[in-house]
Amino acid sequence: MASPESGSAIRACAQAVIQAIETHGHDTARLSEALRGPVAALVARPDLREAGVPRVGNHVANSQYLYYDGDLSILLFELPNGKPVPTHDHGNWETMAVYRGRVKHTVYERRDDGSVPGQADLTVIDDRVLEPGDSVVIAPPADIHGFMALEDDTWGITVASGTYKAERCYFQPDAGTVVTRKPHG
């Protein structure tokens, strides 16, 4: 069972995120800076895996809500080593941080206008390995990303504002293709 201190840390992070959104809107650069400290405080908690309640995850078997209020969610999830999460979009902004392990993470921006069904032209705007405490904000128009754990016992934290699209675009960047489908699986 999680300690009362972890609950306080989660609430403090949620309050800081809400304040950051009120102050900076969805200005990715300012929001990234404002979220760095609150997310780092969560990453520093050794007991987060005991703090959440189960949720059905997208692309992962082990996912938990740490916080949810209808607009803001803070999630903790386990990534299986070596299994890529397909390149996809969200329709909202989120920040992803590494809690434990290492993650190869790539963010894309779509260059075409989406007018040709099944085709998409993406450009890489951020490609790196994230270590514990590292985070990245994924926000429209660059809300397309793919990632993969690089070692066992890899866990991520996602802080997201707004509603995820019910159906998302899934991309194959090298092939220049895109399909739309529900994200579970």
Structure in words:
This protein has 185 residues and is α+β, with helices and mostly antiparallel strands. Helices cover 20% and strands 39% of the residues. It has helices at residues 4-24, 28-43; strands spanning 53-54, 63-68, 72-79, 85-88, 93-100, 103-110, 122-130, 135-138, 144-149, 154-161, 168-172, 177-181. The protein has a six-stranded antiparallel sheet. The chain has a six-stranded antiparallel sheet with strand order 7-6-9-4-11-12, with no helix packed on it. The chain starts with a helix and ends with a strand.
Q: What brief labels describe this structure?
A:
20% helix, alpha+beta, single chain, globular, 185 residues, six-stranded antiparallel beta sheet, 12 strands
SSE topology:
Elements: H1 4-24, H2 28-43, E1 53-54, E2 63-68, E3 72-79, E4 85-88, E5 93-100, E6 103-110, E7 122-130, E8 135-138, E9 144-149, E10 154-161, E11 168-172, E12 177-181
Antiparallel strand pairs: 1-2, 2-3, 3-10, 4-9, 4-11, 5-8, 5-10, 6-7, 6-9, 11-12
Helix pairs in contact: 1-2
Straight-line distance between termini:
29 Å
Overall outline = globular
Oligomeric description of these chains: single chain
Strand order, sheet with most strands: 1-2-3-10-5-8
Indicate the low-confidence ranges by residue numbers. none
SS summary, helix count: 2
Averaging pLDDT over every residue, what do you get? 90
Q: Bin the helical content.
A: 10-25%
Radius of gyration: 16 Å
Percentage of residues in DSSP E strands: 35-45%
Largest sheet data = 6 strands, antiparallel
